[in-house]
């Protein structure tokens, strides 16, 4: 390994990857240089490379402690680096916040490595801490030979908070697709309460939501919840105006509310959301809410708002002096917290599950206010696959793996904490990102890319710590190519995976036997990137692609032929003699989900689109303007969906109980 290769290794710039074909592809020096350049690393002279390598590889051995010390909760050891002949004294550890003051002896130390620099041998030792510690982050200091060193002690549990031991049935829903008489053409927190009530009455244990992240008030057409302005903030469009009007402070807005509903009456009956009209109309009411609050709010409400602003001061600083935007965040937090309280009061085991997008928009508030930790001229994407031979560029900025450690990972801690509040569990989109991300780079005016690796142990520790501090379970979306070390570490950490029926095939292309599914995962028939079942069965998604000129007639014909094969494979998998290719699609769906819920996975989620018998997709991956992504409504009222599917839901509830 030469000096340049060592620098790439130390900075996490990958050297090769295994392509979907099984071929090992090495990243060219020019691609790796582009990744270093994106991190603003000076690699143009041997001196600068040597200096960086020394800083990253050798300098840590000259420090007794790193800035962060990872400590296991029930087997706590403090890792120190000392000169060989220093390992004969005791170390004094003080952690004032938890009243810990203890002597750590070198006699019981575990040797874990050494390094020789300029003739001096340094050794790394793990010193046992004779006490179980509470989970959390704690300022600590260590004294050795009268020298005082500081570190942040991360006391990490072995596993994340566990889900209820019993199997759970849930629904996944894109909240904004829900319709009701009182909403503004965009599903809101009152609709969520209605969904919760119906779900609980039907024996459902959890509701998986789309990301509720803040989008773009001035650009409402940017509707993707997976390309948000800020992942730590909530989209105000989810605020229920009707719920607000139950507060006497806003009673004067009743007429304005009714006028707004009249304006939106025709729009609410359309298949696709007109975000420009919906946002314009609703933001007018939201602005009126703020004015009325300033004039009429009681002292208790004013105190609660001020307390919220103080508690969230760091997060809300992105709004500077915009008190109105902070007020909207407060309303959203109040209503969302009420939703989770309703879940638990009605006996749901987990309640709401949040979804954390993998990144933020490069012109959004999250990026603008945290630019110092983002790399330059690099974007998140995916490597080549059978559907995109040149790879995918998702257009989201990437975080520099070294700079994200600034302030002891304060940015990532806050991001996870904010997305766990008010939720029974958190789904992490593209969970592989805590280990590695595909960076899209421009090399010689051509698009290229490589994997860049992240501080996996630290990010995984944060997930587990925050899981316990917030009493929140974790689900990692691990579809696609996942490094084996990630799969193993997530399983050992009690983080559930995500299994999609359509993707679970063996090397022959047949659907895997249900008994081969892993237990600790969330099983789904479909998600937001896969067409609803009816559409899939009739290959309507292929017809839609053809109508949008996303494939040729020949390609569509091949896709339909493959779909026929897969349909027969589904029938083979079900092994029900009374079912065939001509069977009623609703009967097929019912048999499929009733079979799936009897497989090992602890969590099984129904797509609400399937319960509502939708035929149009909510999203078509790989498209932008060609299709109205993230806009398709469910025009059937929530109550009607549940009443039409009550028999199926009763069967699923009984099957879930009998298969515990």
Structure write-up:
The chain is α/β, with parallel strands linked by helices. Among the domains are: 3-59, no CATH class; 74-156, Immunoglobulin-like (Sandwich), CATH 2.60.40. Helix content is 36%, strand content 22%. It is built from 21 helices and 24 strands. Strands 21-18-15-12-11-24-23-22 form an eight-stranded parallel beta sheet. The protein has a five-stranded mixed beta sheet with strand order 3-10-9-5-6, with helices on one face. The protein is globular. It starts with a helix and ends with a helix. The mean pLDDT is 95.
Q: Could you name the CATH class of the domain at 74-156?
A: Mainly Beta
* Sequence stretches where pLDDT stays below 50 over 5 or more residues: none
User: Can you name the CATH architecture of the domain at 74-156?
Assistant: Sandwich
- Average of the residue pLDDT scores: 95
Rg from Cα: 27 Å
- Categorize the overall geometry: globular
- CATH topology label of the domain at 74-156: Immunoglobulin-like
End-to-end span in angstroms? Answer: 53 Å
Helix count equals 21
Per DSSP E runs of 2 or more residues, the count of β-strands stands at: 24
Q: What strand order characterises the main sheet?
A: 21-18-15-12-11-24-23-22
- Major sheet attributes: 8 strands, parallel
SS-based structural class? alpha/beta
Strand content: 15-25%
Question: Helix content range of the residues, please?
Answer: 25-40%
Fold topology:
Layout: H1 3-11, E1 16-18, E2 24-26, H2 29-38, H3 46-58, E3 68-72, E4 77-83, E5 90-95, E6 100-105, E7 110-117, E8 120-128, E9 136-144, E10 147-156, E11 168-173, H4 189-201, E12 206-209, E13 213-214, E14 230-234, H5 241-244, H6 254-263, H7 275-296, H8 299-311, H9 313-316, H10 323-345, E15 351-356, H11 365-369, E16 374-382, E17 392-399, H12 406-420, E18 425-428, E19 436-443, E20 446-453, H13 456-469, E21 473-476, H14 484-492, E22 497-500, E23 521-524, H15 533-537, H16 540-547, H17 553-574, H18 585-596, E24 603-607, H19 608-611, H20 638-644, H21 646-658
Parallel strand pairs: 3-10, 11-12, 11-24, 12-15, 15-18, 18-21, 22-23, 23-24
Antiparallel strand pairs: 1-2, 4-8, 5-6, 5-9, 7-8, 9-10, 13-14, 16-17, 16-19, 19-20
């Amino acid at each position: 390994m030469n000096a340049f290769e060592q620098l790439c290794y130390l900075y996490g710039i990958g050297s090769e990857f295994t392509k979907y074909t099984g071929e090992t592809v090495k990243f060219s020096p020019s691609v790796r240089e582009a990744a270093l350049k994106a991190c603003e690393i000076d690699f143009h002279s041997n001196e600068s490379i040597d200096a960086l390598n020394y800083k990253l590889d050798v300098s840590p051995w000259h420090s007794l402690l790193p800035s962060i010390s990872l400590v296991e909760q029930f087997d706590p050891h403090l890792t120190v680096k000392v000169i060989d002949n220093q390992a004969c004294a005791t170390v004094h550890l003080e952690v004032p916040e938890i009243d810990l003051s203890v002597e750590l002896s070198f006699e019981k130390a575990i040797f874990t490595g050494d390094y020789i620099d300029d003739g001096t041998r340094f050794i790394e030792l793990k010193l046992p801490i004779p006490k179980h510690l509470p989970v959390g982050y704690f300022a600590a200091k260590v004294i050795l030979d009268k020298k005082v060193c500081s570190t942040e002690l991360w006391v990490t549990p072995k596993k994340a908070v566990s889900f209820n031991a019993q199997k759970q049935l849930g629904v996944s829903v894109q909240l904004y697709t829900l319709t009701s008489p009182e909403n503004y053409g965009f599903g809101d927190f009152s609709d969520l309460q209605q969904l919760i009530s119906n779900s609980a009455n039907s024996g459902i244990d959890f509701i998986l939501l789309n990301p509720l992240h803040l989008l773009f008030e001035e650009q409402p057409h940017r509707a993707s919840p997976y390309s948000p302005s800020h992942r730590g903030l909530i989209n105000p469009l989810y605020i229920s105006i009707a719920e607000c009007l139950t507060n006497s402070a806003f009673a004067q807005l009743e007429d304005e509310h009714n006028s707004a509903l009249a304006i939106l009456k025709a729009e609410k009956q359309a298949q696709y959301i007109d975000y420009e009209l919906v946002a314009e109309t609703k933001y007018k009411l939201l602005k009126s809410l703020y004015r009325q609050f300033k004039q009429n709010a009681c002292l208790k409400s004013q105190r609660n708002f001020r307390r919220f602003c103080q508690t969230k001061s760091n997060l809300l600083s992105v709004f500077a002096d915009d008190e109105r935007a902070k007020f909207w965040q407060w309303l959203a937090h109040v209503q969302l917290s009420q939703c989770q309280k309703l879940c638990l009061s009605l006996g749901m085991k987990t309640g709401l599950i949040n979804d954390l997008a993998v990144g933020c928009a490069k012109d959004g508030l999250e990026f603008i206010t945290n630019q110092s930790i983002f790399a330059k001229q690099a974007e998140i994407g995916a490597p080549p696959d059978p559907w995109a031979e040149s790879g995918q560029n998702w257009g989201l900025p990437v975080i520099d793996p070294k700079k994200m450690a600034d302030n002891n990972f304060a940015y990532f801690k806050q991001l996870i904490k904010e997305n766990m509040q008010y939720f029974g569990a958190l789904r992490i989109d593209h969970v592989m990102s805590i280990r590695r991300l595909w960076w899209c780079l421009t090399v010689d005016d051509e698009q290229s890319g490589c994997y860049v690796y992240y501080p996996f142990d630290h990010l995984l520790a944060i997930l587990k710590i925050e899981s316990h501090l917030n009493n929140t379970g974790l689900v990692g979306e691990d579809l696609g190519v996942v490094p084996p070390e990630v799969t193993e570490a997530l399983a050992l950490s009690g983080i559930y995976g995500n299994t999609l029926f359509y993707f679970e095939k063996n090397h022959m292309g047949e659907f895997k036997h249900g008994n081969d599914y892993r237990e600790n995962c969330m099983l789904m028939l479909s998600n937001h990137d896969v067409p609803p079942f009816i559409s899939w069965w009739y290959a309507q998604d292929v017809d839609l692609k053809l109508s949008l000129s996303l494939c040729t007639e020949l390609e569509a014909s091949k896709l339909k032929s493959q779909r026929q094969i897969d349909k027969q494979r589904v029938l083979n998998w079900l092994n029900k003699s009374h079912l065939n290719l001509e069977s009623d699609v609703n009967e097929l769906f019912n048999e499929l989900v009733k079979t799936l819920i009897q497989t090992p996975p602890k969590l099984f989620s129904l797509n609400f689109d399937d319960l509502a018998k939708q035929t149009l997709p909510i999203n078509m991956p790989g498209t932008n303007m060609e299709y109205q992504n993230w806009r398709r409504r469910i025009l059937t009222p929530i109550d009607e969906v549940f009443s039409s599917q009550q028999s199926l839901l009763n069967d699923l509830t009984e099957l879930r109980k009998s298969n515990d």
